[in-house]
Amino acid sequence: MKPTRRAKPLARAKSDEFNSFVGQQPPATGELPLTHITDGLGFRGILQTGELRPEHCQVFDEPLLYFFYGRPAYRVNSQRLSSAIDAYAPVCLILRPKSLVVPKRIFPFDSGAFNGDRFAEAMHRKMLLDDFALDVSPETPLRLISLFFGDCERYYRNIPLEKIEIPPLSFEASSYHVLITSRHENAFDERISAIELQSEGTLDLNSVAEAVVVPDAFATPDILQRLAALGITALPYDYIPRLRPESYTGALYTIVRDYYRRRGYL
Predict the structure, then answer these.
(1) Among 9, 99, 174, 249, who pairs with 208 as Cys (CB 3.0-4.6 Å)?
(2) Alpha-carbon distance values, 169 to 114, 166, 172 (Å)
(3) How far lies 245's CA from each of 41, 74, 158, 234, 252, in Å?
(4) Cα separation of 230 and 226, whole Å?
(5) Where are the alpha helices (DSSP H) in 99-204?
(6) Angle at 65 between CA 244 and CA 44, to 5 degrees
(7) Contact call for residues 91 and 37 (beta carbons, < 8 A)
(8) Cα–Cα–Cα angle for 237, 142, 253, rounded to 5 degrees
(9) CB of 156 closer than 8 Å to CB of 28
């Protein structure tokens, strides 16, 4: 059944119940990097300028940079069909933990998917995106992970805890738990539980990036040398022309996971 279209935001104050509940939790042990996924064209621009620059966001109507905590979850060019256009190939930047000193916003899921009504079947129709906004603290992602996943390994692999104690009136937390533990076929993917961070400022590539997952077609001596000069580790993947860009998601997860394990993040 197609989810019912979400009603337009109502004139009511946002609830802080979800944020308060998450904020009471002890943080999970460890720390994960951030990921920022672009495509070949975007990667070239980042290399040329040496910066990650915000782009206009239609959801919030302002320039923003988007990141996911730990997971390479964003599907760049997900609407594109199969082609051999290398510029569409996904590139995943791995940023050092705490690269965002103070994020603009943190959400427990992909805010664009919420705004597009992808989560409607698990939410009360009057719930707002802002009801799920979290404190912009470095410990917030780890508190959320501790509560809903237990540890960073389970979070990375998207294995939520099946049973957690949720207060009776914590409706947002209950809806979020229902959403992330769903095993049914539906319109959403693992971005329902990928922690999203937003930044409104430009970031210096040399200061924040520690590794980048690139198509092996981009791993030329010149590009590898430029990355090495910036102190960025290149992690090539097998690029196969005429695969859809979204087809590489599994490969990115595997390469990033293995890198995290070598570095002691997992």
Answers:
(1) 99
(2) 21, 8, 9
(3) 13, 11, 21, 19, 11
(4) 7
(5) 111-115, 140-148, 152-156, 171-181
(6) 55
(7) yes
(8) 15
(9) no
To the nearest 10 degrees (0 to 180), the angle between helices 171-181 and 140-148 is 70
Global pTM reads: 0.92
Q: Give the H or E element holding residue 20.
A: helix 17-23
Q: How far apart are CA 11 and CA 226, in angstroms?
A: 51
For residue range 181-224, list pLDDT tens digits in order: 988 776 678 889 999 999 999 999 999 999 999 999 999 999 99
Q: Report the C-alpha gap between 248 and 237 in whole angstroms.
A: 9
pLDDT mean across residues, the chain? 91
Q: Euclidean distance between the first and final Cα of the chain, in Å? A: 38
Please name the residue that has the structure tokens 């190939």: 89
109 Cβ contact partners less than 8 Å away, ≥ 6 residues apart = 119, 132, 176, 179, 191, 192, 193, 194, 195, 196
Pairing between β-strand 105-107 and β-strand 209-215 as defined by DSSP bridges: unpaired
Question: Nearest Cα to 230, choosing from 254, 253, 204?
Answer: 204
